[in-house]
Q: What sequence folds into this?
């Protein structure tokens, strides 16, 4: 990691923060001009090779990548709707900012703005593509697209003994194995208000995973959930040398919904398995109760599998919540909490893990560009647990009552999906991350 880009970003931040402070009190005013972001590099998009080119020799990696949220980062309809709305409301001032991570080649080539992608080249439309990532030469943990790239004949990667290929030169770079490589985009700060919107890297950095050097790649670039298992294989089609370890490129997180919508069912299933490996539940119940005797029951939720908070990233769009249902022997519901209402919304009074942000006047918003403060933050740090308590009423008759707790997740709330994708659309996929039941005997 080189220092130049860090210094540059810091400098930029100072300028932006000062600008942000002077107008912070007047949330109604539109932005003064384009928000300058990231590195001061510009280049033609034709300098980047299309992913289809890499496909010839890296077929497996290509198939993994094409169904990843990286390949879909620009075309993803939830992003599109949000980016268009942002563009309208800011007169295009935040277009380049959003594109710097979601369509980095389009950002570097100044093909965005306009935000609608009408000037976007085909190579840029495919989001975070092979030749973008493999020409990165500098990154910084500050995030906000603080990368520098050198597109050309040299592809940088994890091997210091690359086999020869006529198509490109290969060079080892240590940054590919570092969490900071991912931090360059997975650490998101509003440059105008200075509010940290997503801090996956910082969460990881302060967790027990950082000293153990269990990086993002160790969990997100291996087959199946969990920290690195060796994944021996060939890095290109038809090469003679088998590598002790190769890295997978589906890079699933928790987004099942968008992958299903885009028709990548295999990737969606992997994301589901990832979510189901992230948390464990524990139930603290009394063994017996008398008729009509209520109880305060305990549901413990442990972040047992993620290397960052649960959930992480831009959690103003996401929802993770507890559903608790108590039934008697006949199946009559005695108590429920967190059961979706008829509109598919998580009802008030539920235990929801997410963040909520407000604009400078303190009004709740999901507009990233005007987010100035965090007004609600309930998430589970890596390797930690939280205890939740539910006051359940007494059962009138002797017998057994069953308590069922489920931890549920969706990558975007139904309300937001209706708002951006239209009301007629299908429900957002809800994934059951964990489920546990217990019995109490009433006598
Ligand atoms: C988001 C950035 C990113 C994208 C997009 C990406 N890669 Fe990678 N790739 C990496 C990283 C990081 C590693 C090495 C991980 C490590 O060393 O821990 C890697 C490793 C590799 C390797 C080394 C050998 C192997 O099998 O693991 C090859 C080859 C490769 N990528 C090719 C591609 C191709 C081809 C594409 C597009 C189809 C692509 N990559 C897309 C980040 C990316
Ligand atoms: C003609 C076949 C061919 C094409 C096309 C091709 N590669 Fe490769 N690539 C290879 C071979 C062979 C290796 C060496 C594999 C090894 O050393 O095990 C390799 C290695 C790599 C590495 C690892 C470099 C290192 O030192 O770690 C990266 C990254 C990479 N390719 C990226 C790309 C990208 C991006 C594209 C598309 C722009 C691409 N390749 C197109 C054949 C190809
Ligand atoms: C110990 C394994 C592990 C490590 C290390 C790890 N992750 Fe994750 N990550 C997970 C699991 C499991 C999930 C699924 C649960 C979830 O969605 O939070 C996940 C989810 C995500 C998501 C989806 C966000 C969400 O909450 O819906 C993103 C983005 C992500 N990881 C990025 C990263 C980055 C960037 C790093 C490094 C700074 C990293 N991860 C390190 C295991 C890991
Ligand atoms: C150029 C910026 C960039 C880089 C570099 C980058 N990412 Fe991402 N990543 C994104 C964006 C943008 C998305 C979200 C796309 C969307 O949801 O529209 C994303 C999505 C993801 C997701 C899926 C999130 C979900 O909700 O399911 C995971 C997991 C992830 N990245 C991991 C990584 C890891 C690991 C690395 C480092 C090896 C990395 N990323 C490097 C920009 C980047
Ligand atoms: C510094 C990089 C970065 C910038 C800048 C950025 N994003 Fe993202 N965005 C991400 C990453 C990474 C994810 C996915 C994982 C997560 O939640 O952290 C994401 C996810 C999203 C999602 C959720 C997509 C889904 O499928 O649920 C939306 C919507 C979004 N971004 C909109 C925007 C808008 C609008 C802007 C500009 C105001 C913007 N982003 C700027 C990195 C960035």
A:
């Amino acid at each position: 990691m080189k220092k130049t880009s860090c210094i540059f970003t810091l400098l930029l931040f100072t300028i932006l923060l000062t600008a942000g402070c002077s107008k912070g009190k007047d949330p109604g005013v539109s932005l003064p001009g384009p928000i300058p972001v990231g590195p001061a590099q510009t280049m033609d998009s034709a300098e980047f090779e299309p992913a289809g080119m890499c496909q010839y020799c890296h077929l497996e990696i290509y198939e993994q990548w094409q169904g990843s949220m990286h390949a879909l980062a620009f075309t993803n309809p939830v992003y599109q709707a949000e980016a268009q709305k942002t563009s309208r409301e800011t007169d295009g001032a935040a277009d380049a900012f959003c594109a710097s991570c979601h369509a980095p080649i389009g950002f570097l080539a100044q093909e965005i703005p306009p935000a609608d992608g009408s000037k976007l080249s085909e190579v840029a439309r495919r989001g975070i593509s092979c030749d973008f990532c493999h020409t990165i030469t500098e990154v910084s943990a500050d995030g906000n697209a603080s990368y520098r790239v050198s597109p050309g004949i040299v592809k940088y990667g994890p091997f210091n003994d690359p086999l020869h290929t006529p198509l490109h030169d290969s060079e080892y770079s240590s940054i590919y194995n570092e969490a900071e490589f991912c931090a360059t985009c997975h650490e998101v700060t509003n440059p105008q208000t200075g509010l940290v919107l997503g801090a996956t890297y910082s969460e990881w950095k302060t967790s027990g995973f950082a000293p153990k050097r269990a990086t993002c790649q160790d969990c997100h670039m291996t087959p199946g959930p969990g920290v690195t298992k060796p994944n021996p294989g060939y890095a290109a089609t038809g090469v003679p040398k088998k590598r002790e370890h190769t890295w997978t490129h589906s890079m699933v997180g928790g987004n099942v919904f968008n992958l299903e919508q885009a028709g990548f069912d295999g990737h969606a299933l992997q994301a589901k398995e990832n979510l189901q490996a992230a948390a464990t539940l524990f139930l603290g119940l009394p063994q017996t109760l008398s008729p009509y005797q209520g109880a305060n029951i305990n549901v413990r939720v442990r972040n047992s599998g993620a290397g960052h908070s649960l959930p992480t990233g831009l959690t103003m769009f996401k929802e993770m919540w507890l559903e608790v249902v108590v039934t008697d022997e006949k199946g009559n519901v005695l108590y429920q909490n967190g059961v979706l209402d008829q509109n598919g919304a998580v009802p008030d009074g539920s235990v929801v893990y997410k963040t909520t942000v407000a604009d400078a006047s303190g009004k709740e918003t999901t507009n990233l560009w005007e987010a100035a403060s965090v007004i609600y933050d309930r998430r589970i740090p890596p390797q930690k647990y939280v205890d939740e308590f539910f006051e359940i009423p007494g059962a009138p008759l002797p017998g057994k009552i069953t308590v069922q707790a489920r931890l549920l997740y969706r990558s975007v709330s139904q309300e937001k999906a209706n708002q951006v994708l239209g009301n007629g659309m299908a429900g957002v996929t809800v994934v059951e991350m964990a489920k546990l039941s217990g019995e109490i005997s009433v006598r």
About this structure: The chain has 14 helices and 17 strands. The first strand starts at residue 136 and ends at 138. The radius of gyration is 24 Å.
